[in-house]
Structure formats: C-alpha cells, structure tokens
Amino acid sequence: MTLSSRAAALALCLTTAVPALAAPAISVETLKEVTKTLSSDEFEGRAPGTPGEDKSIKLIAERFEKAGLKPGANGKWYQDVPMVEITAQPGMTLAFSGGKAPVTLAYKTDMVVATRQVQQHIAVKDSDVVFVGYGVNAPELGWNDYAGVDVKGKTVVILINDPDWETKTLDGPFGGRAMTYYGRWTYKYEEAARQGAAAAIIVHDTEPAAYGFNVVVSSWTGPQIELDAANGYADQSKAIGWMTGDAATKVFAAAGRDLAQMKAAAKVKGFKAVPLGLKLSTAFNNETRKTMSHNVVGILPGKKRADEYVLLSAHWDHLGRCEPVNGDDICNGAYDNASGTAGLIALAEANAKAGPADRSIVFLAVTAEESGLLGSGYYAANPLYPLGQTVGGVNLDGVSIYGASKDVTITGPGKSELDTYVTRAAAAQNQTVQPEPTPEKGYYYRSDHFSFAKRGVPMAYFENGLDLVNGGTARGKAVTEAYTAAHYHAPSDEYHDDWDWSGGVQELSLTYNLARELADSDAWPNWSPTAEFRAIRDKSRAGK
Hints:
Blueprint: H1 3-13, H2 28-38, H3 51-67, E1 70-71, E2 78-88, E3 93-97, E4 103-106, E5 111-114, E6 121-131, E7 137-138, E8 143-144, E9 155-159, H4 185-194, E10 199-203, H5 206-209, H6 213-220, E11 224-227, E12 239-243, H7 245-254, H8 259-266, E13 274-300, E14 305-315, E15 320-325, E16 328-331, H9 334-354, E17 359-366, H10 374-381, E18 390-396, E19 407-410, H11 418-428, E20 432-434, H12 449-453, E21 459-460, E22 462-464, H13 472-486, H14 502-519, H15 534-542
Helix pairs in contact: 2-9, 3-9, 9-14, 11-14
C-alpha cells in the first residue's frame, strides 16, 4: 500500500461517527512505582533465568492479583517457558585468508559472533566466503539472492534491511522505505541456515539497521537465550554475527572488491551471489545451561462470552548485565520495557475497576522479547486460550515519557481492520493518526505483537507521534533520536523522576478504550485482504 492510499484508508476510518468514550482511571502512581522498581539496580536488568526474573515476575503477579485479576495460566500466574542459555567465551576472532592480505577481526571492536547451536565448542575452518547481497529468497517477488550458488558449509556475508530501503516512498518490491520481514536480521540468519551456510555474518550499517554497533555489542555479548529445542538447533548455522562497515570494507578490499559497488549491485533484481575468494576461520567455546523462564498471565473473565478473548501484552524482560559504559554494566531497561509493563498493570487496574466486559481480557507479561520474541512466540505456539477464539488486542513496548502528543502513529498501517479502532479511539481524545515516520526501521517485526500476527491474531501496535504538545515535531524528533542514539539497549536507559507521563496516559487511555470496545462487542476484526496473515486467521477462525 502506498503512503497516499494508506492516508486515504485512514481518512475513511473517520467517516463513521466517533463515540464518546469513557475516560479510564490510568494511575500515574502505578506507572511511576512499577517502572522505578522494575528498572532499579536491585532487579539487575531483568534478564530471564536470573534472580532479576524471580523478582520481576513476583512483582507483576502480586500487582495483577492486587488489581483484581484472576490467575490466567490454568489456575496459576505463570506459564513455564523452557529455555537454554548459551554464553560464548570472549576472545574469538574472525580470520579471513586467501586474499591480497589476511584480515583478522577483533571481538566487540570489529565484530560480534555467537551461535544458536547448543554446543560447548564451535569451529568453522577455511570456509569459503560468498557475498549474497541482502540474503533474500522471495519466490513471490521473483527475487533470490541464493540463485545459482551452493553455500552449504560456506560463510555468507549479508547486507541488513531490504534492497529498496533507501527509496523515499513506500513503493517498491519490498515496500520501498518500509522494511519487510526479509530485511530483519532474524530472517537473514533463518534463510542462511535453510541454505546450509556454516556461518552468516551481517554487515552493520547504522541507518538501515536502525541502531549503532554499540547496540549490537550490548545485545549480542554475554548470555544468549533460545527456546529449548530437542535438536539443540543443530540445523542452524554454526556461527552467526555482525561486522562493522569499516571491517567489511577491509574484508572486501582483501578480496579485490569495493564494498560500495557491491552494495549497489545487490539492490538490482537479478543480482548474483559473488564468491569472494576468501576463507573464514573462527572457533570459540560456550557455556550452556537449561533454565525455566516464565510468562505472567492474568485474566479478567468475561460476563457473557467468557470463551472469547481480548489480549493485552508487554514484555517484562531486558538485557540484564551488559557491556559496561562508564563502569555501569546493568541495562536497567526503564523505558524498554519497565514502562510498558507498568502500563499493562495500570490497564489491569483500570479494567478491573470498571468491571468485567462481555468478553474476557487476558493480560500477558512475556519473557525474552529481547532474545527474539521468545516468550510471546512460546505462548503463540502453546496458547493458554485458543488463538481462534482470541479476537485481537494491543501490544505495549514502551510508554511515552515525553508528554502529551497531538498525534498517534500505527506501526504497520494498513495491515488489519484494527486500524479503524485505533483511529476512532484517537479521534475521541483529539489525536490524529499520522503515517509511521521511520518505516525503514522495521518496528513491526521487532516486538511481541509479531508472534501473534504470524499465527493470525490481529494485534494493534501504536504509540504517540512526534508532534508533542510541548515542543512540536522538532522536540519529538530530537528526544526520539537522542534515546535511540544514547540510551537504547544501554545502561543509561534508567528511570527519572521528572518524566512527563501525560503522553503515556494518552496511549494507555487509547489502549483501554480500544480493548473495551473489542471486549464489549461481537465483532471479529480481520486482516486486510492482501495482508500476509489473512489466510492463517481465516483458517483458525474456521476451525475454532
């Protein structure tokens, strides 16, 4: 859908009368107390499988119970989520040989590398290196970066994002400026593994990645978590990781290639993978341990159709202890996502105070979002309440701390009929809906709503826009960019007493009214006819 057609669709949403919606009692004290507590050093960054998890899930369950919810996991507050933790021992290198000169990349400075395989020792020796462009295999688009090349046992070097990410509009085979799932690093490693690659290394670039290499280092070093799998992920590549753009430039130069020219070639349909004439070697040891993490689940049972469910979700976890900055090694995750968890608890209080809706409302605080949406993915694969009977809902990943806004942005607009609900509820509180300002960052694929979308459940994901009441779009852009550059996945994401929660109250009021409208109606909003999740939703509803 083009930008203009999305705007037209949103305009049509407003042709119906906007109902007068009740103002919910969103407790600012709850937002402050819970955010401050969860993001305190005492909780050690809330990494799954640590004492920080024990404290976090205990607090959330206690607040759910105090709010008036019922235990939502078969009479318990917790859904067990079996996991395995893999910690690569530091000091490994990526050594490229066979070119004009050997190139050795240093851990954390030039690259990071890890593995999904549950193995104590990983070794890749003299693996042929192949540049596969954006690493996309999209038959429906007639695009295959792996066409005509066998990469089994080899190392693939991959560009981040989609081939058309630099397009200024939303027109293009991969959505133009808007990232598709083909652009996400998770997809690129998945496809490399399907192709049989022994190693897969992504070239980092700040703009298309949407964050600096410091975020890669903080997120990819230390314990890495996966859902426990019977095969120990033996079907995955041995080594996966990132290298900086400067490091990649050196590697390509050693192969007699210019990285900029290769990037340009990879954007053109029909691009053919390029063997670089290099060999890669790396080896490292891992510590592994199995652990049990938990989703926290509360429910407000419906009074008429209790077997139909509206879902509200937020992730409680963060990175735990991470790469130190100025001696601070705790990634507290105050905004991301202690604030969203506090918002979920505030919504539980407001809904319980209002009393049961016709449908049941499920409050789901999930684990291990930061490790690849693992907790929500586990719930979606092992639902406590049938997904075919789950109407839809809202995911919270950060609650505004910058004050009230005149607008709202929907992440992934045009995908589902829930856009209409968001637009209507926003208009009722005098907010307009504006296009997503940075669609190239792929936020639609980066939070827990995506786990449910993949299995057909429409989930809204929105936030206040950049047009702040205090400071307008200039201040909105400035504070957003400052957070991403300095605080995202860094120890400095800490709680501050002077945060302005009025914007958070706006977001949560909108969420409350949307959820109550869904819960008090008999409607079943669906995906748009062209959405990639429409078929699975229709199938799940038919088999309900």
